Amino acid sequence: MxxxxxxxLNDKNSLRVESPNLNSFNNNSNxxxxxxxxxxxxxxxxxKYYFKRFKIFLKNNGKSIVKRIISQLFFLALIxxxxxxxxxxxYNNSPxxxxxxxxxxxxxxxxxxxxxxxxxxxxEQYFPNQWNDINVLxxxxxxxxxxxxxxxxxxNIKWHILNGYNVMFMTDHNQVYGGLVGMKIAQEKYSDKxxxxxxxxxxxxxxHLNLIGLTENVPLKKFPTDEEIKALIDMVHSKGGxxxxxxxxxxxxxxxxxxxxxxxxxxxxxxLEVANQYTFDYQGMMFCxxxxxxxxxxxxxxxxxxAYAWTVFNIPQLEPGKIPTQDMVISTLRNTSTKTSFAFDxxxxxxIMVEFEFTKFNPTWVFISPWIYLGGFFHSFFExxxxxxxxxxxSCTGQTLDIHSKEIASLxxxxxxxxxxxxxLIILIISLKNLLKxxxxxxxxxxxKSLNNNSNNNNNKNITPKFQSKSFDLDNYNGEELVxxxxxxxxxxxxxx
Length: 497
Known about the structure:
Order of helices and strands: HEEHEHEEHEHHEEHEEHEEHEEHH
Structural class: alpha/beta
Strand content: 15-25%
Number of strands: 14
Number of helices: 11
Helix content: 40-55%
Distance between the termini: 15 Å
Radius of gyration: 51 Å
Largest sheet: 10 strands, mixed
């Protein structure tokens, strides 16, 4: 007790020492401080405090943080280095998406005839009565699965029958076997509907040349010389065959080192293909008219396509409704007086198209499909340009790798942005976690302290401090101290208070 006790006389002239006022012990020394200034000082103090702690944290943990980030980046690069080549390899060598498929000709149960569709024949001067002047509707150029086509020889034959052809040349790249198979099937099953004549599309880095009427393969050259080409043409003629130069514009677009049309004319080709699928070579046809070189059309059938053109001519000795023989066709075409033309319909809206209806997913393909899609993603950042395939030995030009460096740099940049954003997010989450933890602890402590204070206040209301009192007789007062210093020093509050 630091304050002086006061004395009081009761009605019995006795002096009693009473309890002091306890509220006088409250200290309100900060009540006049400026609250805003105090708040700003707290903020500045906190910022300095946390900045100092951050500097200490970096000093103590900076090296370990840098090591951790570097190790994570190295691990990320390692993952990309493993996933990228594996996925690209699987993408380029993925299994078939479907285990089985069904060939469908659409529209189903339909046939098409350019005669009934009244498609105009190009050269009216040769065929003034149009379809009444011809009896052969021919396709000079088609492929099967024995080279790069999608259909078997028999399926190829069916497609031609449905689209109104009655003669076709089956010309696989650099081998005659597919044509021989097709010829046999047609003779056995479809002799009343179509004639199949075997041939070869002699394919290399200088030309695509149809050799018609051959029954055996010919020597292959990746880059044949002019002399070798001329010798081949002469050899085919000596065997009673025909030579057709295919798709001259396409060969130019593809970068083949092909001779000029004038050279081909000088070497003695029999025909120039001026309509290939839906592409029409007008300049080539003008050259043919100028030099009296005959021309034909070809479907160049491989897969999933319609019929766009029919080569037409007339065999005088062919009876109406009959299918010509191979000798009839070859001999008529070898006769340079025979006029040929074509009916061309680039719209081909009503012709019969071949499609595949896939019937069952390949479970292996489904299982590795994430790798296939990843491979496609990584493959989009570069191109392996193989050049035009020679069908003899690899491509006609050297392979080149075109890397999309700007796109790769952008990808790396985004990887870093995402990586450091995730790192920052982790730091914020941890900091928020610690802050919330500290906040809940303080709230819990304050609640507990408040409950204790309330309990003490309730006890203070019900308990009156008890003091020991001492009475004095003032009538017999002889000048002694009423309360000695020793009594004051020994003043105590009872335990109940």
